[in-house]
Design goal:
CATH class of the largest domain: Mainly Alpha
Shape: elongated
Helix content: 40-55%
Mean pLDDT: 75
Structural class: alpha/beta
Distance between the termini: 63 Å
CATH superfamily of the largest domain: Peptidase M41
Largest sheet: 6 strands, mixed
Number of domains: 4
CATH architecture of the largest domain: Up-down Bundle
Low-confidence stretches: 139-146, 530-540, 613-653
């Protein structure tokens, strides 16, 4: 479109030039006026055309013998006579020679003038038209500011089905009645049942809430209107409310349909809470949403779905019966579900025979579906970097290490003393993890710097855990403290490498005392802290216990840590030969697997050192409020400027 004005201008210029060429009369011989009169006297000219105002005379004559090969041919000519009236004697000469005369008026200059002015005016008009188009685009956005930004997917889309969602059988079973209602609403109407107007999908990020909503639309075969919560917010008050009205109006036209709002917490936060209270744009949008959800009936065939990972900050009016009266929990996948998700993401990958997806599923506790997708992709990228055409087990191991801890820092050079300290540090973790009966078994130990860690000890749970017994938590504390105690036992001093271990131990012990009632001095009481809504986690905290209780909590936390420290020290002293053997193996190989740890320690001690692993107790009790401790790799990070672990200055050879 932007080339059209230039094409029009070029056409006008070409037309003007062509008109000037035609006005020139083609090829004519130019004669002097005296030559013209001479040819008239000679009788060579029979007729002429005379333009009185300009004095221009045109005609033709027969070439004479002096023209050579053109002799006898008729030649067109033109000459410029006197402007105005032709002299009387010249007129008499033409009459005496019987020259036919035709007097013509000069051609009108109107068309060239109009074309000239039209070109000029056209350029101005095109310029203003271009400016108008730009302004129109901006005004169109301003005039349509109240229109909904929801994307409508027809019955052909989305093509996602429940079979495309791996795992989550309970979630799919619970939400399947929404599909039945959209397919056959008369069945519910006959029996007098009322389908929930709103279904709220609640779960951590990356668990597939949006994918499940698309699967509902795909299974039901109805239009699916998707919009994000942030699409309602603008700088103008009232715009969000207008977009909500337009959204529901569009849904009524497509009924039966599904309205899906992703990240609804951006517009559904509690009203009047935090620093930004008052009748602002967010509250106006929420009020309109509440009104619309009360306004339509179930017979209209509209189901409202939304997703959030912060249900605690949603307004209570939004969650009452008649609006979002059903919450569907989409939790982090279990071990079996992780296996199914990995199979889905590995369908288009070339897997080698040594890949065991069940091992990968067991080694990724706490990972969401998005994390598992990233893990598979990282494994494929690692295989491609190696130049292999298939993804092997080592690629999954490297991908998991990179996702959990970061890239290996092969350029980081450690001194022999530092490597020995790190070897005994990681060896202390590994020996305790192997010996203590309730700890998770060791999967891999390495002293290669990875991410922010100088060494890593990885543990994998025997099976999925949903509740955590006190024995398991105590062994976890002992394993975390094992690296620091191994340094103290061997070298007689400690280093800064246990910084992350101490942070994790303190946090876990504090939860045991304050939240899980695992202290005799505190008893069966939970003491937590609650922050004001929307003010951030650390800006405002309210403490619901006295200073005396805080002192008792601190003493109990210290008591638990001291007890586990003494216990871990005794175990390491009893298994000192296994610790020395494992540290020597780490210095030689840099990486040791869990099976090799078992073999090395048992051989050094001359007996079977490990005990049976604790199985979770069969209980219907729900998991702990904060999920309990999650098995993970422990990263040892030196404190800035510490002398015990200096920053390396040379590249490792």
């Amino acid at each position: 479109m932007r080339w059209i004005p230039w094409v029009v201008i070029g056409g006008i210029v070409a037309f003007l030039l062509f008109g000037m060429f035609l006005d020139g009369g083609g090829e004519r011989e130019e004669l002097q006026y005296s030559e013209f009169l001479s040819k008239v006297r000679a009788g060579k000219i029979e007729s002429v055309e005379i333009q009185q105002s300009s004095g221009k005379i045109t005609g033709s004559f027969v070439a004479g013998a002096d023209a050579g090969k053109d002799a006898g041919k008729e030649v067109d000519f033109q000459t410029q006579g006197p402007a105005g009236e032709i002299p009387e004697q010249d007129i008499k000469l033409l009459e005496s020679k019987d020259v036919s005369r035709d007097y013509k008026s000069p051609p009108s200059d109107l068309i060239p003038t109009l074309l000239t002015w039209g070109l000029f005016i056209g350029i101005i008009v095109l310029f203003w038209w271009w400016l108008g188009r730009r302004a129109q685009g901006q005004m169109a956005g301003l005039m349509n500011i109240g229109r909904s930004r929801g994307k409508l997917y027809t019955t052909d889309k989305p093509k996602t089905r429940f079979d495309d969602v791996a795992g989550y059988q309970g979630v799919k079973f619970e939400i399947n009645e929404v599909v039945d209602f959209l397919k056959n609403p008369a069945k519910f109407k006959e029996i007098g049942a009322r389908i929930p107007k709103g279904v709220l999908l609640v779960g951590p990020p990356g668990t597939g809430k949006t994918l499940i909503a698309r699967a509902v639309a795909g299974e039901a075969g109805v239009p699916f209107i998707s919009v994000s919560g942030s699409d309602f917010m603008e700088m103008f008050v009232g715009v969000g409310a207008a977009r909500v009205r337009d959204l529901f109006e569009s849904a009524r036209k497509e009924s039966p349909a599904i309205i899906f709002i992703d990240e609804i917490d951006s517009i559904g936060r509690k009203r009047g809470a935090g620093l930004g209270g008052g009748h602002d744009e967010r509250e106006q949008t929420l009020n309109q949403l509440l009104s619309e959800m009360d306004g339509f009936e179930t017979t209209e065939g509209i189901v409202m779905m939304a997703a959030t990972n912060r249900p605690d900050i949603l307004d209570t009016a939004l969650l009452r019966p008649g609006r979002f009266d059903r919450q569907v929990l989409v939790p982090l996948p279990t071990q079996d579900e992780r296996l199914e998700i990995l199979k889905v993401h590995c369908q288009d990958k070339r897997l080698a025979d040594d890949v065991e997806l069940d091992v990968a599923a067991r080694g990724t506790p706490g990972m969401s579906g998005a994390d598992l997708s990233n893990l598979v992709n990282e494994a494929a990228l690692h295989a491609a970097r190696r130049g292999d055409t298939h993804v092997h087990r080592e690629d999954f191991e490297a991908a998991r290490d990179r996702v959990l801890m970061g890239m290996k820092r092969e350029s980081m050079a450690l001194s022999e003393q530092e490597k020995e300290i790190i070897a005994y540090h990681e060896g202390g973790h590994a020996v305790l993890a192997y010996v203590l009966p309730n700890a998770d078994p060791v999967h891999k130990v390495t002293i290669l710097p990875t991410g922010m860690a100088l060494g890593v000890t990885q543990q994998l749970p025997v099976e999925e855990k949903h509740i955590y017994q006190r024995q398991y938590l105590e062994d976890s504390l002992a394993v975390r403290l094992g690296g620091r105690l191994a340094e103290e036992l061997v070298f007689g001093q400690i280093s800064t490498g246990a910084e992350n271990d101490l942070v994790g131990c303190t946090e876990l012990a504090r939860k045991m005392v304050r939240q899980w009632g695992m202290s005799k001095a505190i008893g069966p009481m939970a003491w937590g802290s609650q922050g004001a809504v929307f003010l951030g986690e650390d800006l405002v905290h309210t403490r619901d216990y006295s200073d005396e209780t805080a002192r008792v909590i601190d003493e109990e936390v210290e008591t638990i840590l001291r007890e586990q420290e003494d216990r871990a020290r005794r175990v390491l002293q009893e298994h000192r030969r296994g610790l020395d053997a494992l540290a020597t193996a780490l210095l030689e190989r840099e990486t040791v697997t869990g099976d090799e740890v078992t073999e090395i320690v048992d051989k050094a001690l001359g007996r079977k050192a490990g005990g049976p692993r604790l199985r979770p107790a069969a209980s219907e009790a729900p998991p702990s409020p904060n999920g309990g401790p999650k098995p993970r790799a422990r990263a040892k990070k030196p404190a800035p400027g510490a002398k015990a672990a200096p920053v390396p200055r040379s590249k490792k050879g």
